[in-house]
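Why do we bother with holo predictions? Because pocket geometry can differ from the apo form. Keep that in mind while you read this record for heme C.
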Amino acid sequence: MAFRLYSVKIGVVFIIGMAAVLGLSVTTGWCRTYVSGTVLTADGKVVASGAVALEKGALHNNAFLAGGAIGANGRFKIPLPSGGPWGLHVYSEKYIYFPLQIQVTPGVDNEIPVILPVDGQPADDPVISDIHFSKLSGEVFQVRMQVNDPNGNLGPQMLAIDTRRFKSYRLVPQSGDLKDKKADFPAGLYVSPYIPAALDGEDLQNWLFVVADHQCSNGPVVNGLGQSVFKPPMVYSQKLTCEVAGIWKSNFDKIYRFSQPAPGQIAGEQFEGNLIIDRMVQKKNRLLVNFQLEGRKGESELALTCRENRVRLEGRYKLADKSGQWIFTKLKNAETAQTGRKLFEANCAACHFAHSKNNKIGPGLQGLFSSPRLPDSDRPTSEVAVRGQIVDGGRKMPPFKHLAPEQIVDIIEYLKSL
Ligand code: HEC
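The structure, written out:
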């Protein structure tokens, strides 16, 4: 849930004043920017340990800046200093690591689907040893570690992640960084930049270390005491709904989000790669897709089949010069709260705060459904009353008769989550 700073006008003025004094940027609004996600695996589990690191800007530019830990529930949530392009890297022992270029919307929590392939050859994974923290002054320290790789193809990602302050640092060979910063990194001693924090009193278990090689294998993720943080992944038990809206993985190992922005409409996006979905039409259990791959137009007809918890879309794709089998396996249901949140932002946020009870133009809607009475009229809280308010409007609130019943359901589901 986004964290908001406003309380009363005087508080806002005070915060702007403080921000000016501290030289902070307030241009992104009052909400913090987050990237979050649940880390699933291609073999149908939720990981229970691991690390996340983010580069500012283009993927693989090595400008590591932010990071955090994956919790025992497979979730991560990392505050970012700004929106825009970021490179996301997710690591968990026994899985192949996941690099993804993401576009972060400022001021909101950006939920990203992450699916890690199984690491079939853990024996060739790089290994970290001899982590050493050295104090340079009261406020600065540095970290060193030894890195080895059985198959000698280390990449540039030698990372230290400060999970408490949500920062990541890239370590470089003691002999100096490689010019192109891409491949063939040597085994040996790696050093961090100067880290601007006091080493005294630091809990080294809050630090995570990870190294990836050029085939995207990472070895154990270890803490600052050199201990592996590995916990066995858990079976993923979400009941998959037999519908097109959701997160899917194709037989080309690409991840897609298919959504239903309005009744009768289907939209799709690919998370990484060069496929653009132009149009999707659903006719019963058939899905007709028009797409572009690297600028070339293609089409496909997929059939939706659902057996127990195995939901698939399957058919052939056709491009001018080739065709083939396209199989999608459903990984997650669509998150209604996600659609609801977007609808709320588009229709309601101009007048209502979602994360505060303070008045904007209308009353703040935080905790709406957990209070017994509605904030303005003092009527008893019920879905019927809130639906009525949305559809018919109020004294000063405009009516939203143009919203489809399903969209109103989504908004109400979102309001319940506040
Ligand atoms: C143009 C401003 C505006 C927009 C847009 C707006 N509201 Fe309101 N809303 C108000 C005002 C003002 C009130 C105070 C009571 C009234 O005027 O009916 C209110 C009251 C409410 C209440 C409290 C009703 C009660 O009985 O206490 C709810 C719930 C609510 N709005 C939900 C929404 C939702 C959901 C949306 C988006 C679909 C939305 N509002 C869009 C201005 C707005």
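The pocket of heme C is lined by residues 347-348, 350-352, 361-363, 365, 368, 374-377, 379, 386, 389-390, 394-398, 400, 411 (CB under 6 Å).
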